[in-house]
Amino acid sequence: MDPNEQPPQPPEAPDQETMEQIRRRRVAKLGEANKPPAAASTSSPGPATSPASNSAAQSKENKKESPSAPPPAPAQPKPQPTATGTASAPRKINITPRPEELLENYVDYQLSQIFRLTVDPNRPTDAHGHQLIFLAGIHQELVDAGGPLKLSADSLDSAVYEAANSIPHDKPLFHDYLLPCWKRATRAVKAYRGPAGSPKEEVLKEARRLCFSNCIFALSMPEYFGREKAESLAPFLLRGLENESGVCLDFYNEAMARIDENDAILPLFTLAMVEISTKLSSLTMNDDYKPCVNVLLTYSKFAPLLNAVAQDPRFQMAQSAPNVEKNTILGPFFRISPLQTEVTRTYFTGPRTMDKGHIKNAQNALQITLAAHQDDLKSIINAFVRASTETRNKVLDWFAYAMNVNHKRRALQVDPKEVSSDGFMMNVTVILDCLCEPFMDSTFSKVDRIDVGYFRRDPRVDISDETKLNADQSQSEAFYKTKVDGTSNFITEVFFLTLAAHHYGSEATNSKMKNLDKDIKFYQKHIEKMESERVKFANRPTDLAMFEVSLRRHTEVLEKSMSLKFAIEGVLLEEKMQSRSLQFMRYVSVWLLRVASQSAYTPDRALQLPLPETQPEAFSCLPEYALQDIVDNFKFIFRYIPQIILSAVGDEMIALCITFLQSSEYIRNPYLKSSLVSLLFSGTWPTYHLKRGVLGDLLTNSTFANNYLLHAVMKFYIECESTGAHTQFYDKFNIRYEIFQVIKCVWSNDIYKQQLTQQSKTNRAFFVRFVNLLMNDATYVLDEALSKFPKIQALQESLNDPSLPPQERQKIEEELRTNEDQATSYMQLANETVSMMKLFTSALSESFTMPEIVQRLAGMLDYNLEVLTVKSRNLKVDKPEKYHFNPRTLLPEIVEIYLNLGGSTAFVEAVAADGRSYKPETFAATTRILRGKFLKGHEEIAAWEALCHKISIAKEILDRAEQDFGDVPPEFEDPIMGDLMKDPVVLPSSHIVDRSTIVQHLLSDQKDPFTRQPMTIDDVIPAIELLEKIEAWKTERLAKAKNQVASAMDLDG
What is the pTM of this model? Predict the structure, then answer.
């Protein structure tokens, strides 16, 4: 080199003052840890005007102090000429290098390979052909010091600094230089096979340590390298652990080992996660979202990273329900779901033409993808929960926030812009279910850890605006205003969060699916109607074009709804997810029963009913959804995936339903109480090999059901007469239909027949009211159903007229559909009501011939017998089976009720005394139909004929007796019915009526018929004096007639 020529200058460094500040910060971060031995000293240079001069100065100092500094290499001997004048071959001299020289060469080689550096201008590449960065500054210092042109640990810090500054500023320093250096340093350390703790190993470790420190400086303090903008760590994390240009696991491990000495590390990783979360918030499951999830999974291996992320303000920064899944760190990870609109259209392209097999395959694929993502979320949340107590609380706060801002998801009309998405909430529900798994054992051993005082202890879950089980707003506010001491344990926190998640998450999504069903049917009908009107625009091109645009728009809405519905079905029908949900609901059921009964109930312990008369406020003030979610969840499983419940259902489900039907006063909402009946009914549907459904055998044979089921459902049969809803009149028929199905399912067990008999004897008023309502229903639904058939027949005949105008035809078709729907509904109810009466009268006929019942029962049977026989011509319609109308079944069942009660004189007299509907020709017609249609066997027809004869004789005798009565004194007549009183009683209003009259009245209306004041049958007083007068008058006038009736019965019997 020309001595006059100046060596190349290193890149311009910051001014001296700025440099001094940077150096002090840097030295403080690097520290003096991990110094190598003196032979390979890596002491950080002290403050100086430039790293190069500082390094040179230290190098000279180290040469003076360190004995390991290598001396100049000996000169090679020159070849000596021989006698012939030619140079002879040099004599080979074996020189063993000193250890210092070997270490010096090793250090130079390794540092050159790791950092791709050289101080020798004659060595531009390494042995592998990689381009090396020439360090002009270090080179000059070594020349000035007279040392060998080799890299050493002493000059490494300055060398890396000079090399980093040589990278053009338009190229990323971390990506292009420092990260590759780190990976090479890491590989070198791993590849080292020498003695542990040797100078060579210490040099490699120091190289790796120094490299990592500079990586952090490049990311957090770019001004140190003269750069204005810091690089982001996020892109390198997203490339994955195995990618050569990504951050590897060793980098994470080194970072965790250095967090105590370098406070920039955790903020760097936290910022990177914020950036990754932000990126993920704009992605869907159709996009490449997995790298983002993988980074958080990697974070999950390191508690300090999770703690730092949880402490960031952006961990919970959202201010609304839609933003919680986009503007919080965890939100975008839970937002990824196949329920995202773009994803549903990918799985279900052309949903209108997809067959069931194609839909099922798409749903299976959707479930597999979602299950894998939810497994990742489960691992992530478990890691957060275990990271530290503070981080666990942060996560619970985040879950609670997601619940509390999504109350509108259970509104009647849900605005998607005001709530979180279904996919987000479903993922939240599933993960919370997973958090509950560890304490949900099959023996319910940890159910006592769930603290009912949670809502009185500054709870995370807000229930202030939720309807309570049996308390109004003021009652619940007063109760929760009184706080209790202590803190809620983790099991309690997760339990109530999960309960809320089911309400606002999975159950809200289930409701949406039901609404989509309705919307789809509406869109389909609307599009079908539009298609039929296309011909109107055939000759009007402009209008046709507008029509096509409108049709496409409607079709797009329909297909979008269908795709979403299929996707929701796929998510909700995932069996593993629903099995976890089922187990959770079993736990909720047991817990509710424990709170209500104030006992330590578990399914293997007996529960005593009725519940305590004084209701615990802790139960009454619970949110209504605590019970509603159980019912809805089980009903969904019974209907769609009953296979998962076959091995999971226990006695607690039956106990829950029976308990709150028996002690129905514990629940305010009549709809919620009726849903308990629906749940029992759903459990009796035939499923696979179980003809009586999942619950049928348990209801039939379990001791608890045997003791309480019949009375509980009979009690609610009476209660549902008045629910308080504006649709109560029609609701009660559906409820009672389901009660009938439950009773029919268990009727094979004679213990229920014995209980019915016992009820009629020990609780007469209760039983009479039940039977009275049963008769009311039978009368109403039979009359409504059978009265529709003449209308249907007339409408069907009208439609056969080919000259009927289109508009008139459409009007008639709509009217026909309405009548058909009503006839079908009422006929189903009628069939079940008659069937139930047949069962009951067969079991205890004497109970149905009580004075309070027998007259109305006879009148109801006589009326319907006439309609089905003499007036049957009015019942002829096309395809009667379409309406569940089968006279060949219905008529024999009514006849069987007659036969069940025919042994009672009271019943025979009541039929004969029915002046409105009893006609001998009706009974004769019935006999002809039974015999001609072979609807009954010979023995039953013979019994029927004998009963007809009894009734005929009774009718003749009663007619003669009526003539013998002559005029009944007015004071002996019932003022309401106009009949001779048999058991006169005085009402609170001082009016006198027959006991049977007031009993029948009070069955439907608990008020005095004259003054409309509330009263019960216990308020009446027997009119003993009047009764004696009536009996004396009757004895005188009817003694002969009564004797004739008794004699006729004995002879005929």
Answer: 0.80
